[in-house]
Amino acid sequence: MKFDTRQCSALMCVIDSGSFEAAAQQLSLTPSALSQRIRALEIQLGTTLVIRSRPCRATPAGQRLLQHLRRVAEMEQDLSGMFADQAQTPVSIALAVNADSLDSWVLPALADFLIKENILLDLCIDDQEHTHALLENGMVLGCISAEPQAMRGCEAEALGYMRYQAVASNAFCARWFPQGMQRESARLAPVLTFNRKDKLQSQFLLEHFGLPENACPRHHIPATAPYNRAIALGLGWGMIPELMLKEMSPEPDLICLAPERPVDVALYWHRWKVQSPRLARLSAKLVESARHALLPTAR
Fold first, then answer.
1. Phi, psi (deg, nearest 5) at residue 237
2. Which of 111, 118, 168, 272 could form a cystine bridge with 237, CB 3.0-4.6 A?
3. Confidence (pTM)
């Protein structure tokens, strides 16, 4: 089966932009003309590809087609670079990464490699429990995830464990945990979470104090630097990776609340079995770097 490139571009643009109107503007088409292209593709395949919601979403069949189209586009970019007057043209690679990995070890590990290989990153940032869905949906070509099981057509490699510590400021501990962090004080003390998908603090509270999710007052601060700063300022306690604690500017005011009870999160690198040469080299570099940065085993 051969696909019309204009119809495929229309599908990708609608899903990436989230609406027919935005996609039509990007492609210099009317929304009606764009809709006709996608409808023609749906008729060819005999199935609906787009859920016309706000934002637009791909159906399961649309997700499978998007997976294929993104892989083909990335390999075509890579191939064209090999024939471009000896100089590699930039290749854009879409990846999904959890924020803590990005802010601690991923960028320093990959920076020189990305410059040398002339790779442009198109990053999606999400919780490690949710990045895998972006690969399934055809939005990215690889992801760092807490999901150990590879989906069909993909491979998953263990990267190691990211260790988190529960920390708070001296002033916060004096106010809320004068006798140490105990069940009743933990129930009343404000906790910081990255966003509503972040379950690390809930996992810690359930395992060590038997407190259910949402048992405590909480802040939601979905940006790494402000999140860490909010803890240092005494707004609440929260989980910070040991990698970040080591690299943060000296914070004599921060206290590990339970250093003997860290939370270890296993991370995996998921990518397609069939990759372009540059994506294969990026995968190898990322896996190698992770195994130097992360812990090989959990506590």
1. -105, 160
2. 168
3. 0.76
Residue closest to 118 by CA, chosen among 70, 159, 84: 84
Write out pLDDT tens, residues 16-30: 888 999 999 999 989
- Supply 152's token pair: 């069909």
Q: Using CA atoms, how far apart are residues 149 and 80, in angstroms rounded to an integer?
A: 33
Which residues constitute the domain of residue 30? 5-61
User: Do 201 and 168 meet the contact criterion of CB atoms below 8 Å apart?
Assistant: no
Look at the chain and report how many structural domains it folds into. Answer: 2
List pLDDT tens digits, range 87-135: 467 888 889 999 999 999 999 999 999 999 888 999 999 988 889 988 8
Helix%, strand%, coil% for the chain, nearest 5:
45, 20, 35
Whether 199 maps to a domain, the answer reads yes
Q: Which of 92, 93, 96, 194 has its CA nearest to residue 137?
A: 96
